[in-house]
Design brief:
Number of strands: 42
Strand order of the largest sheet: 1-35-36-38-37-39-40-41-42
Mean pLDDT: 94
Distance between the termini: 31 Å
Low-confidence stretches: 1-26
Number of helices: 11
Length: 704
């Protein structure tokens, strides 16, 4: 039997098919643990050789005792079915194929500075001897090789005033005097972002250096141009999540496209990322191609024939969860059109087929994240059926010659594996990175269901529980963050319903109003209504799940969530205080006024609440959990990361203080070295084990 068993859901939802990546015998299987989750091998994004013969991908493993992580790179033949992967002697990161068939990657030099290296590979996949490509006086954070192999884009954090990659940035604009204090000006940009304090004047910046015979030669030139010449003063890659997708070469290597947001006094309020075009080796300032749009423009993707530039764009300034439409710019005429304006889904990735005939993109769509084929001539969007049953979560799509697609697919039941599809048809598995490990664990079942939520709207959810287990199961209500997000059918290394269900629980997740994948109007519905329709959906969704599955014991129930989900735990304390035996709140919002004046990306609350706190005090207070402390009585575990600047950890401390003062059973788990997420392996195990002990305390009191 498959470790990922699916049950027919409400309204004739199709069964999940047993794919080879999910297929395993169940004899002698044990329940999944937090250590299993943390040590499960993790597949990274693939890179494909120019001829389409080879795929290169990383696999990260974690030791179950020391929790040390190791990444190895593998070559896999794509034109020979059944070929085995070949390990490569790469002690580094960010390995990709170059246009010459060699592999380029980052690794430390003799001074322990990250530099670009080159590893030649023979026609049979045999690696040669690695050689150092760059010898620069500072570490490189990332790179991209031009399609013609004649230039290398590199990036690192350094002052905007630096005109060369090796400039002396030891004198930084701190406060004058003998101390180490940083002095920030009120008319400048962010003071801190995500989990780090900003260094005034220092940005992620891209430089281009010529390549000759596999070696960098000449002086790196900044793509943002001379200071004061009209180029941006902003991070590329963008912060805090941006990467190589923010940089793209023109197919002939003559120009570089890059995304940047201006780091000025409006930065905390703005999502206005623009796409620029630079010809750094010819000199001069870059050109802003999307200056007319004051909302987000991102992911520049030139067509291989050089005719078009595709990219993703939002329409509403100040809104980070607006629909991302595929835009198409004719590079000869400059005419730009909204290619998918009539398609009510938000795309999250973008790639051209090698012949420039089609665009392939992914977007959330009712619990799945499938791939879509878009005709650049007409804008017609067709959803591809790549997997038998549900698509689950498809990502890292690489179109190949001959209408083939290489992509990764994961689900609640199993982590990512690579698949390959021919002729837009059903895919076959390529890798078995984690298949054996997941197959050794006791299976879970995942059922999709829908119900009438707030205002009679159709709302979707999922039930994850141990498969083939008798007896009634306590229930855990899972509440996602964002709030514009989704607990869709995907694997997660942090909030993973399978590992919670494996402890003997039924996990119910509900995509309440505000969730993504159901059209933009549904996503927008949470705006100025944080504690209204979403809470109603959660109440109706839990009731629908209990009615649907009689194995679930609604008399034993806890709820848990992070970020907005953590806010909802604090909101439930005051609005639904007698429903749950316990709550788990991770980095959740507790006092909306204090949150507004201490978070960093102010555009987020300003959009969701119609302005700043001074503009809309009544609305902030309407949905403020602190105003309902008189009703608090549910035991709560609070977990926080001290490096969380999105929802500052003082929000969790304040909630814990309120719980203590009211004599409500409570615990506080603090991670000094974590941000909004718990990422480090040992910390993740500790977080999960603490949460499991808290759930067991209230839902399984006789199982000590």
């Amino acid at each position: 039997m498959s470790p990922f068993v699916s049950v027919a859901a409400l309204f004739a939802v199709p069964l999940h098919a047993q794919t080879p990546a999910d297929d395993a015998a169940t004899g002698g299987q044990r329940a999944m643990t937090a250590t299993d989750l943390v040590t499960m091998p993790r597949l990274g994004a693939p890179s494909v050789s120019r001829d389409g013969a080879w795929a290169l991908y990383p696999v990260t493993t974690t030791a179950d005792q020391t929790f040390k992580r190791t990444t190895r790179f593998y070559l896999h033949r794509l034109d020979r079915p059944g070929a085995a992967p070949m390990a490569l002697p790469i002690d580094g990161s960010s390995a990709v194929f170059g246009p010459d068939g060699a592999i380029y990657y980052l690794a430390a030099d003799a001074e322990d500075r990250a530099q670009v290296w080159r590893l030649p590979v023979g026609a049979d996949g045999t690696p040669g001897t690695a050689a150092q490509v760059t010898r620069l006086p500072r570490a490189i954070d990332g790179f991209s090789v031009s399609p013609n192999g004649k230039a290398l884009a590199i990036w690192a954090a350094l002052p905007r005033t630096c005109t060369d990659f090796g400039c002396d940035d030891s004198v930084r604009p701190y406060a004058p005097g003998p101390g180490n204090g940083r002095l920030y000006q009120g008319n400048e940009g962010l003071v801190r972002h995500w989990d780090a304090w900003e260094t005034p004047g220092t940005l992620n910046r891209v430089f281009v250096v010529p390549l000759a015979q596999g070696r960098a030669s000449g002086t790196p030139v900044p793509v943002d141009g001379p200071i004061g010449a009209g180029g941006p003063a902003g991070d590329t890659p963008t912060m805090p999540y941006g990467g190589g997708e923010d940089i793209a070469w023109a197919p002939d290597g003559s120009a570089l496209y890059f995304a940047a947001r201006q780091a000025d006094g409006q930065e905390p309020y703005s999502v206005n990322i623009d796409i620029w075009r630079a010809e750094p080796l010819r000199g001069g300032a870059p050109i802003n191609l999307t200056d007319a749009n004051e909302a987000l423009d991102t992911m520049p993707t030139p067509s291989p024939d050089g005719q078009y530039l595709a990219y993703l764009a939002m329409a509403r300034p100040g809104y980070e969860a607006d629909r991302q439409v595929i835009m198409l710019r004719d590079l000869k005429t400059g005419v730009t059109s909204a290619l998918t304006e009539g398609f009510d889904r938000s795309f999250s990735s973008l790639a051209w087929t090698p012949d420039s005939r089609w665009l392939v993109a992914t977007a959330q769509d009712v619990l799945d994240t499938p791939a879509f084929r878009i005709d650049p001539r007409s804008g017609t969007v067709d959803r591809l059926d790549l997997m038998a049953g549900d698509e689950a979560h498809i990502a890292n799509v690489v179109p190949l010659h001959g209408q083939r697609l290489l992509f990764s697919r994961d689900s609640i039941g199993a982590p990512a594996e690579l698949f390959i599809a021919n002729g837009w048809g059903q895919a076959k598995p390529l890798t078995m990175v984690a298949t054996r490990q997941i197959g050794a664990l006791a299976p879970v079942s995942v059922e999709r269901f829908s119900f009438k939520g707030a205002n009679g709207a159709t709302v979707w959810g999922q039930i994850t529980k141990p498969a083939d287990v008798g007896g009634r199961l306590p229930v855990i209500l899972y509440v996602h963050g964002g709030p514009q997000g989704s607990f869709n059918d995907a694997w997660s290394s942090r909030w993973n319903p399978r590992v919670v269900a494996s402890q003997g629980y039924a996990v119910v997740s509900v995509d309440f109003h505000g969730s993504t994948g159901y059209g933009q109007a549904f996503t927008d519905a949470i705006n100025r209504d944080w504690g209204g329709k979403p809470l109603e959906d959660l109440k109706l969704g839990l009731a629908a799940a209990l009615e649907r599955d009689r194995q679930i014991d609604g008399t034993r129930a806890c709820a848990m969530g992070a970020s907005y989900g953590g806010y909802m735990m604090n909101w439930i304390e005051g609005q639904w205080p007698d429903r749950f035996d316990c709550l788990v709140q991770h980095n959740g919002l507790f006092d909306m006024r204090a949150f507004y004046y201490s978070t960093e990306e102010l555009w987020f609350p300003r959009w969701d609440f119609g302005g700043g706190y001074a503009d809309q005090p009544a609305l902030y207070e309407k949905w403020n959990p602190i105003n309902h402390l008189s009703e608090w009585r549910t035991p709560m575990l609070v977990t926080i990361g001290e490096r969380d600047f999105r929802v500052p950890y003082t929000q969790g401390l304040a909630a814990f203080t309120a719980l203590k003062e009211k004599g409500i059973p409570s615990q506080l788990l603090v991670f000094p070295d974590e941000n909004h997420w718990v990422l480090q392996p040992a910390n993740s195990v500790q977080w999960h084990d603490t949460v499991f002990a808290w759930l067991d305390r209230w839902l399984k009191p006789g199982d000590e």
